Amino acid sequence: MPGPFLGRAAELTSLEELCRPAVRGATAAGFIVGDPGSGKSRLLTELRARIGSTRVFQIRGYEPAQAIAFAAAREFLVILGLDPERFDAGQARIEIFEAALQALGHGPALVFVDDLHWVDETSAALCHYLLRGAATEHRPLVMI
User: Fold this and answer.
1) DSSP string of the chain?
2) In 3D, which of 83, 45, 76, 71 has the Cα closest to residue 141?
3) 36 in Cβ contact with 121 (< 8 Å)
4) Phi, psi (deg, nearest 5) at residue 102
5) What is the pTM of this model?
6) Sheet holding 27-29, edge to edge
7) Which residue from 119, 122, 127, 128 is spatially nearest to 66, judged by alpha carbons?
8) Which of 51, 84, 126, 141 has its CA 20 to 30 A from that of 97?
9) Distance, CA of 121 to CA of 61 (rounded, Å)
10) DSSP characters for 55-85?
11) What is the distance between the alpha carbons of residues 110 and 121, in angstroms, rounded to a whole number?
């Protein structure tokens, strides 16, 4: 269990402000940059605790799985109710992307993508598709 959150108050405030559009029905994206061990994941954990009732999802990159399609987004897709046997990098890719967008629904949602530099290409493409689709359809989605 993490201890008390110290420092990075300005960054946390900025991220909280970024998340407000999801509540108002807008789409937004943020990017946190920093050296390894600088507290980026801890910052996301604190933000998640402060968000409240917004649906929050996690996509997490992992170096050994970087070459596996949907490795980073698998848990996210399963939580959305999508069948893991459909997670194919071939012809079914666009179907999974669209099914994920539809499964997000029209209520506010926040997607944290942690360790982006290790996210597989298919999961990264899914993130891009979700942001573009949400923006086009005026859905309340924030991705950080």
Assistant:
1) ------S-HHHHHHHHHHHHHHHHT-EEE------TTSSHHHHHHHHHHHH-SSEEEEEE--GGGTTSTTTTTHHHHHHTT--GGG--SSTTHHHHHHHHHHHH-SS-EEEEEESGGG--HHHHHHHHHHHHHHHHTT--EEE-
2) 76
3) no
4) -65, -40
5) 0.85
6) 27-29, 141-143, 109-114, 55-60
7) 119
8) 51
9) 10
10) EEEEEE--GGGTTSTTTTTHHHHHHTT--GG
11) 21
What are 5-44's pLDDT values in tens digits?
Answer: 556 778 888 888 888 766 667 888 888 888 887 778 888 8
Q: Which residue has the tokens 């009732």?
A: 53
Question: What are 41-83's pLDDT values in tens digits?
Answer: 888 888 888 777 678 899 999 999 999 888 999 999 999 998 8
Q: Tokens in use for 98?
A: 């669209």
CA-based Rg of the chain, rounded to a whole angstrom? 15
Report residue 60 as tokens. Answer: 């997490």
* Locus of tokens 């990075």: 8
Distance CA 6, CA 81 (A): 37
